[in-house]
Amino acid sequence: MANLTLTTFDWVPELPRGFVRDLRVRWALEEAALPYRVASVPFGDRSAAHLAHQPFGQVPWLTDGDISIFESGAILLHLGERNAELMPTDPRGRSEATKWVFAALNSVEMASLPWSILKFTGNASDTPAWKFLDDFLKLRLKHMEPVLADREWLAGSFSVADILMSDVLRLIDRFDGLTEHPACRGYVTRATARPAFVKARADQMAYFAAADAAR
Ligand SMILES: N[C@@H](CCC(=O)N[C@@H](CS)C(=O)NCC(=O)O)C(=O)O
């Protein structure tokens, strides 16, 4: 792969550190032992150049030569297409991994993200809206539980699907949302014990710590 550059923010507050989505990309790049450089855009402003790469003014995005890709799921699929460490190479295995990539983002994260936002903004209170969201997420977790009790990794061997699913579940766990789902929790423990995750997380933490020092 040509000249990979991962772009993230130049600084973020303490709360999201260790969870900024550039970590998903760092993790995949580390798993595949691909060399890359990290670039940054201001946390404060959204320039036209930023929006040209990421139309929602978010991070991350990855450039691979003259190809620029936003959306962490799309980036991971792009990397997975070219690296056997990230996706099975047989058609059945690839479709397994692909479907779990979409399940992580479109079935679990679509419930977990609003749930987490209400949690960290202190709005997880006794309201019908919160109860609805909490029940909705618990239903998704209830269905993930037997899947994850039954296998080590989603598509047979470790793949980008596991990076996404475990990262989604990891955020729920941060807010104690996996206490009734031991298989989901065990899966997060298993995934985050991988050396590539440990390095990716440490690198992200160091990157934002260096930004503190430079402010
Ligand atoms: N669906 C996007 C979400 C990206 C996202 O939420 N990025 C956060 C950082 S983890 C961000 O840029 N937040 C600032 C904002 O939304 O303006 C992806 O998975 O890449």
Entry keywords:
about 220 residues, alpha+beta, Glutaredoxin, Glutathione S-transferase Yfyf (Class Pi), Chain A, domain 2, 2 domains, four-stranded mixed sheet, 8 helices, globular, binds glutathione
What does this protein structure show overall?
This protein has 2 domains: 101 residues, Glutaredoxin, CATH 3.40.30; 104 residues, Glutathione S-transferase Yfyf (Class Pi), Chain A, domain 2 (Up-down Bundle). Helix 1 links the parallel strand 1 and strand 2. 36% of the residues are buried. It has 215 residues and is of the alpha+beta class. A 4-stranded mixed sheet has the order 2-1-3-4, covered by helices on one side. The chain is globular. The mean pLDDT is 97. It binds glutathione. The site of glutathione has 7 residues, from loops.
What is the CATH T-level topology of the largest domain? Answer: Glutathione S-transferase Yfyf (Class Pi), Chain A, domain 2
Quaternary status of these chains? single chain
The residue-averaged pLDDT reads 97
Instruction: Say which molecules are bound, naming each kind only once.
Output: glutathione
Task: Estimate the helix proportion, in percent.
Answer: 55-70%
Query: What count of domains describes the coordinates?
Result: 2
Note the beta-strand portion.
5-15%
Outline type: globular
Low-confidence stretches: none
Terminal-residue CA separation:
34 Å
